[in-house]
Amino acid sequence: MRRSFDKEAFFADLGYQPHPGQLRVHRSRAPRRVLACGVRWGKSTCAAMEAVAALMEPREESRGWIVAPTYGLTRAIFERLRLTVLQHLRHRVVEDAEGEYRLVVRNLAGGLSEVQAKSADNSVSLLGEGLDWLILDEAARVRRMIWESHLSQRLLDRRGWALLLSTPRGTGWFWGAFRRGQKGRDPQYESWRSPSWENPHLDRELIEAERPRLSPDAYEQEYEARFLGEESEPCDECGCPTYTIPPVLVLYGEEEPKCCADCGNIVGPDGRTVVMRGANGLQPVKIRRMGEDDEDEPYRGRAAQLQAQSPELN
After folding, report:
1. Residue 298 — very low, low, confident or very high, per pLDDT cuts 50/70/90?
2. Which CATH architecture has domain 7-231?
3. Using H for helix, E for strand and C for coil, what is the string for the chain?
4. Contacts of 20 by beta carbon, 8 Å cutoff, 6+ apart
5. What pLDDT is stored for residue 301 in this prediction?
6. How many CB atoms lie within 10 A of CB 95?
7. Residue 95: φ, ψ to 5°
8. More confident residue, 10 or 307
9. Average pLDDT, rounded, for the chain
10. Which pLDDT score is estimated for 78?
11. Is the dihedral of CA 160, 137, 183, 275 positive or negative?
12. Domain coordinates of the chain in residue numbers?
């Protein structure tokens, strides 16, 4: 049975003072936390200290993994965690299997808590165990299959939580998880986008000095924590943009166009987009107004006719 645990007081005892962005992550109770941040933001420190807190949380027992695309990246977080435990909590260490990248401690309730470092490039090692928590670093560089088939499943039977951290890399599954948390439609997810300069220990002028040395895309991705290509992805609410629906909207009388509450683009009566993506970008929507003499049935019939004729209207 879990007991109350003041994580911030625990961090203060360790001498760790998270910056505001890190604190948002630490305070979240969402089962799936997703952080997209710029380089040198402090995500490795954030991940390591979250792991230390998970180890020491008062429980009968707990088991967690730290995973990254390679062992080299995983070790960076694991060693930071290990050194913190050895420096401040050595008396609670039960087993320090350094060669196996595994650490067992006696938590604040007297139970045993274990953490192990894993590599996503060795899928065989990711099978079998149920987990109470999981930290996945550089998640955008991990294949979707690894997350869906080897990692997320480990959390089900023990109702575990996951912290997914990464610098953005296009619009893959990590972007989908981030967007899920941003939209607030799934209470299981919470997500944040945080550029490098939100780390108060970095000099903003030095970061800006990198802008002319990099391509705009590289700077936006690495320092601004932007997902390149997200603007071209279809809206979850209305499907905008589309390659198949003709960009024609039929309105009756003085009726005004309706817009998607999510992306703000024009939608039809069914709430689906009428914004089409062509070879040269988005095509303008053609609005056809029906006269006042048109009744409902003729209106629907003529609307369908206009949709069918739309290639000729472009």
Report:
1. very low
2. 3-Layer(aba) Sandwich (3.40)
3. CCCCCCHHHHHHHHCCCCCHHHHHHHHCCCCEEEEEECCCCCHHHHHHHHHHHHHHCCCCEEEEEEEECCHHHHHHHHHHHHHHHHHHCHHHEEEEEHHHCEEEEECCCCCEEEEEEEECCCHHHHCCCCCCEEEECCHHHCCHHHHHHHHHHHHCCCCCEEEEEECCCCCCHHHHHHHHHHHCCCCCEEEEEECHHHCCCCCHHHHHHCHHHCCHHHHHHHCCCCCCCHHHCCCCCCCCCECCCCCEEEEECCCCCEECCCCCCEECCCCCECCEEECCEEECCEEEEECCCCCHHHHHHHHHHHHHHHHHHC
4. 198, 200
5. 37
6. 11
7. -150, 130
8. 10
9. 88
10. 97
11. negative
12. 7-231, 248-307
Q: Rounded to two decimals, what is the model's pTM?
A: 0.79
Tell me the CA end-to-end span of the chain in Å, nearest whole number: 65
Taking the C-alpha atoms of residue 243 and residue 247, their distance in angstroms, rounded to an integer, is 10
Gap between the Cα atoms of 98 and 86, Å rounded: 12
Task: Look up tokens 């320092």; give the residue.
Answer: 223
Instruction: Give residue-wise pLDDT tens across range 138-176.
Output: 999 999 999 999 999 999 999 999 999 999 999 899 999
Question: Apex CA 6: angle with CA 156 and CA 196, to 5°?
Answer: 75
Given a contact cutoff of 8 angstroms between Cβ atoms, the answer to whether 71 and 119 are in contact is: yes
Q: What pLDDT, in 10s, does the model give residues 176-202?
A: 999 999 877 789 999 999 999 999 999
Left, alpha or beta for 271 (phi > 0: left; psi -120 to 50: alpha)?
left
Mean of pLDDT values over 253-257: 81
Place of tokens 């029906």: 290
- Name the token pair of 303: 């609307």
